[in-house]
Amino acid sequence: MELKNIKKVGIIGVGFMGGSLALALKKSFSNFEIIGHARSDKAFRRLKKAKVLDRIERSDKRIAKESDILILATPVSVIINLLKRINPFLKKGAIVFDLGSTKEEIEKAAEKNLPKEVSFVGCHPFCGSEKKGVEEARGSLYQGSLCFITSTNKSSYLVERIWKKIGSKVVRATPAGHDRVVCFVSHLPHLACFSLINTIPAKYLEFSSSGFRDLTRIASSSSGLWTDIFLTNAAKIIENIDKHKKHLNEFRDLIAKGDRQKLKKLIKKANKRRDKLS
Amino acid sequence: MELKNIKKVGIIGVGFMGGSLALALKKSFSNFEIIGHARSDKAFRRLKKAKVLDRIERSDKRIAKESDILILATPVSVIINLLKRINPFLKKGAIVFDLGSTKEEIEKAAEKNLPKEVSFVGCHPFCGSEKKGVEEARGSLYQGSLCFITSTNKSSYLVERIWKKIGSKVVRATPAGHDRVVCFVSHLPHLACFSLINTIPAKYLEFSSSGFRDLTRIASSSSGLWTDIFLTNAAKIIENIDKHKKHLNEFRDLIAKGDRQKLKKLIKKANKRRDKLS
Asked: Are residue B155 and residue B204 in the same domain, yes or no?
């Protein structure tokens, strides 16, 4: 498949991420027809109102049949189910790519289920997952953000060109390498944050400062999405929880001992790492 | 002491918080002379450049002698040392108040060390501690922010009027009650955040998203300040670390078991709590 031959792009899962991608693609590739899936009448009305698509279809099979590129923008478990189910309907020569937040299980499911005439490209655009709903979609979402690509087939280079065209910085990684990195910089922080806010008695939350509000913003992230992420990256997140507990214990021990010097050093280490970020 | 009799206000510790308070006081009480302490020649030059004070003094004793109100805006351990040392120099009838982030140890030190003719009012304005330095000071800092007052003497009502005048919402609490609440909504989150960023291999930090940057902003907070806070609220922070570890383990166990339903419920609980905040 060549970029110039692509006419129809289907999206299954037109929420915040999928909807933003629809807008971004339309802006950069005005010749694409962007077709989105509505899984209910209610979703149909919502998508119509949001005006992010050229066409809305109620049948995902029909979208699969028509699409030169099919984008799976649902939570990870739904992507895996789709990869199992959609096989008979895909257009010959089509490219399927996804936006899933974990990649090992998805790449395995694609390898096992998709026909040889279809190529799969694992993608993970790395941005703003605490927003929900197509109403929040914006065409600039991917501008300047990272996008991991975890496949190495020929089609992955075409998909890379698409991501770059809409402003993403593409990073190549193996599925396992991707899952390891994002487990540290995204999965563990989300889990720590969910867990932190659950630790605090609800009645005290009214005393929270703006710093706390920044800190816990990601605790609003979708429960469906994150259940999937944790369960499809279970071994790594468990390993990281244990590592995090060790670091908490390091603080605990120094406070218990009253070791001012080492405690200060440990905070300075955190300062230094944080200050390197913008 | 009546508000109309206050002429000279001294500040020891003119950094971000103290400097912002100097600006806020000058704006609301134009008749106050705001005198700040510079503990070195370098600090003197820095304060002069920052233009937040009416007068800069190199001797904290001299400031103590002159001040109708003396404000201690240093880290907690320095406040405690000052309360021990400054006793002989305080003006008769003066009011001393502090901005320290923990209150039990400070109130104890004030009770033990200050002369009877001086009244102490424990205060903790609850805002923006990751900023550092008088250069960042701004007169609007306390506008709309919470300020805990942990003393109940007559002077505490005068100090309350001052905080309200500069836009703070005053909350009355016992020193222990204050330390319990802020341990949950501030101390534990800071510790968890320092610890989280230390858990993540430094080489992966370049892959962090904007969500992660928001989440870890408070990991830039001053190591000196926070060493003091943790050590002067040691029993409570240790208790809270242990509670937090239990909540992390709850997630860990559900992920290990693959219990999708309970995991989702736990994240929904965090969502609900977070969504109540702005």
From this structure: no
